[in-house]
Fold:
Amino acid sequence: MIRTIFAAAAALLLAACQSLPSPPPPSGFNAAQTAMLQSQGFVETELGWELALLDRLLFPSSESAIRPDQAARLMGLARNLLSVGIDGARVEGHADSTGSAAANLALSQARAQTVADALQAGGLRFAPGQIVGRGETMPLSDNATPEGRQDNRRVVLIVTPP
Structure:
């Protein structure tokens, strides 16, 4: 009798578990969006989905312009994100520590704006405050070396769920 009750209870529990919907992806994006982000070089971080280091846009010293091929790549990226329902992002510009803090802040904002302009040409939208210059405040690498300074002259694209 106890075996029968136990077997019936186990069967009911298994049936209940099978009927529950699967949990949403932990990132807040659906499977297609997550796959698109990963295929474009994004990695999930504590800030959201961020372009991996190798895919960040790096800039020469004191410059904020991007090459035409970079602009075309960004417009394509924007179209790919839109194709899965991702229509906005945050763009953060950064600078190395060469020059004054005020000049680096302005330069990092100009870098962020340049990248955002290319993404907007591809269809992404940006709310106020989503195009940000961080200046020299968030270095990735040591500013004492030319390689470190190059790593720090970058723009990062961060995508978060709506």
Notes: DSSP finds five helices and six strands in the chain.
